[in-house]
Amino acid sequence: MNLPLPSSSPCSSSSSSFPLTSSFPLTFRCPSPPLSTNSKLTGQFRLQTATNHINPTTKGLSLATSIPASTTSTKNDQTLLSLLRQRKTEEAWILYTQIPHLPPPTCLSRLVSQLSYQNTPLSLRRAQSILTRLRLERQLHRLDANSLGLLAVSATKSGQLSYAFSLINSMLRSGYLPHVKAWSAVLSRLASAPDGGPTLALKLFDTITRRVRRFSDVTMVADSRPDTAAFNNVLNACANLGDGKMFLKLFEEMPEFGLEPDILTYNIMIKLCARCNRKDLLVFVLERVIEKGIPLCMTTLHSLVAAYVGFGDLETVERMVQAMREGRRDLCKILREANLEDFNEDEENEILNSNQIGVSVFEKLLPNLVQGSNREPPLLPKVFAPDSRIYTTLMKGYMKQGRVTDTVRMLEAMRCQDDSKGQPDHITYTTVISALVKAGSMDPARQVLAEMTRIGVPANRFTYNILLKGYCQQLQIDNAKELLKEMADDVNIEPDVVSYNTLIDGCILVDDSAGALAFFNEMRTKGIMPTKISYTTLMKAFALSGQPKLANKVFDEMLKDPRVKADLIAWNMLVEGYCRLGLVEEAKKVIQRMKENGFHPDVATYGSLANGISLARKPGEALLLWKEVKERWEVKGEGGSSGSDSDSSSLPLRPDEELLATLADICVRAAFFQKALEIVACMEENGIPPDKTKYKKIYVEMHSRMFSSKHASQARQDRRRERKRAAEAFKFWLGLPNSYYGSEWRLDPGDSDY
């Protein structure tokens, strides 16, 4: 949602006596350097001060709107300001709704700030309504940067990331430089957000730092300059993208702003190594932290354990945990020994050569990597005992590998711990429940839930959502409904959007599209806003039940929802709905709309369309589809463009077995043997073994008497000569009698010696 602010330089009115309403001092400025020959700034900015002033570009308008028209309006404005100063936000809001005119800028800014600071859904909606009113009346310049920044922070905490991101961008477009605490809060959420969130985080960071660098006087933008937390947020975005080069670039920019990496920076570097498949570098990150004298904390060990669990190296994690239990400090030595066991020199060189990120990147990030294992591994500065999080992370590793027994044993061992930090918590029990649910053991999972209640460890919504998913996967929808009722009635845990998405998906598994729609409507009735998964799951219910028009209606609702961004999965579900009924033309129209909206068909799109063509028995459409697939397959080695504005044919595509097998089946049945051979060649080049037995059976049943007529005219024989040549080549590939070999391969009795 973009909030268009006035194009003129913004101006705010705020009293210098107004105390800030946040836990950090948000003093936003739209600064400008002093007019001197040494100034490097050429853009036009205005300094936003903390005193009341009038925008000179709208002087007449400001005077007309700020001077009260009557004594009553003046009294109301004074009363509103008094209530705000006394922190009586609720009474101030009620008075604001009763005032017919717009209050002065000071009152508006304070009211938005205090509503945002309350950080409740109701107060956030109220603050947003003020912003909406000002936008409609083209009076957004009445709000100062402090109030806008607090509103962005509140929206971020409430999960309205798109709104907060748009608000920060609107401030930047209007010349405001938001406080680092405000834009960094948005940056933090963007770094791990779906739908390209990390990429947007990088763009936002770049935009703000470029603005900051334009000022030669650092003090003028001191509140907006990035701090260590902001750098850590953008580095986290790089780690999530696996972009080591950008990580290094930003890492080297920290000294420019007088910053040094802290322990969290190196924790994020551990994540980068994991994303880049560099398990061998994890120990060097730990050693670098020790060498630099950065205070080591448990979070680093948590990150290391999580990284090794992610690699599936549970043996190394078990060694680490055992060493920590024994009070040892030689974890670096243990990790180095694990590296020597995992890699020989040839394997390590192969990994380095195949890795997308050059070795030089990590050599610059980790200077101690150059010496490698020639140096003596350092000791930890102190002894660290394993806590419940480390044990739980190891349990998650057991769960991923299907080792349910080891997961339960770990829980029993934790119960026997003398150290209170190692005792199981609700996350530990939830992990055990998740392992049991994954194994299909619902009764033992419910027993663990009952034990949590008995010993006073409260289960949370996440725990119940896992049980809901287990019942749905076991097709026990009635038990899932009972559990949903138990959540609300017995333990006072309201279901969230994940709970309802799980139930909607469960209804799909039992072919109950009506039940899926009922849960969707119930969710909206309770004020729970559907997510992208909610819409696509409901579309799936209607698509699989043969109701593509209803799926299309859900898709239209999704497009109207400003909080949700339709993705390729949603488009593909719409295509699947029409193709399941053989409605090829409707499916092609959807694909055309998809392309017009910047989405390019993928393997799933083409697979659904191929199935629809097969069902509709339109082999001519299969030829057109194969032509498009072939064009995209042939550019796979040419580095085709991946931009959203590129033509689909220029984007590389690797077809899968299902798509190629369906197209080959259609072409063989329709006697398009030349195209069938092309598809078969594509399958073999992609390492997909064609089903010769299936195609041989189809040929024998449908085409064995093809071209056998002796009464065809010469003209007709000439026309089908090319088809006959392709048929003979296809029979040759199948191993059937053909013009190349008149009969099957056989050994005569006299050739038995051979």
From TrEMBL:
Key words of the record: Repeat
Repeat (PPR) residue spans along the chain: 227-261, 262-296, 387-421, 425-459, 460-490, 496-530, 531-561, 567-601, 656-690
Family matches, as Pfam families: PPR, PPR_2, TPR_At1g68980
Location of the At1g68980-like TPR repeats domain: 73-192
PANTHER family on file: BNAC05G43320D PROTEIN, PENTACOTRIPEPTIDE-REPEAT REGION OF PRORP DOMAIN-CONTAINING PROTEIN
NCBIfam families on file: PPR
Keyword Repeat part of the UniProt annotation: yes
Signal peptide: none
Keyword presence, Glycoprotein: no
Similarity comment: Belongs to the PPR family. P subfamily.
Protein name: At1g68980-like TPR repeats domain-containing protein
